[in-house]
């Protein structure tokens, strides 16, 4: 049996597709936050990252929870600095 150090083509494609999907969810979540809170998208991204950091949660998981509506948009400002 031969094990290659190089990733197989389908592994690379799967990883790229996963990265694109995660980036899409992140951008959707930032858009939702921006619209809900009346913020520019870059500020919405900072708010999302700060929330994830405060709650020791992954950024992608937090974004996914917002997109899936498992988390309320209003909670992002709860406990945020400067709010």
Helix/strand-derived category reads: mainly alpha
What proportion strand?
under 5%
Uncertain spans? none
The largest β sheet comes out as: none
Radius of gyration, Cα only, in angstroms?
Answer: 17 Å
Protein topology:
Layout: H1 9-37, H2 41-54, H3 59-67
Helix pairs in contact: 1-2, 1-3
Overview of the structural elements:
The chain has 83 residues and is mainly alpha-helical. It is built from three helices and no strands. The chain starts with 8 loop residues before the first helix and ends in a 16-residue tail after the last helix.
Main attributes of the structure:
83 residues; mainly alpha; 3 helices; elongated
Summary?
63% of the residues lie in helices and 0% in strands. With 83 residues, the chain is mostly helical.
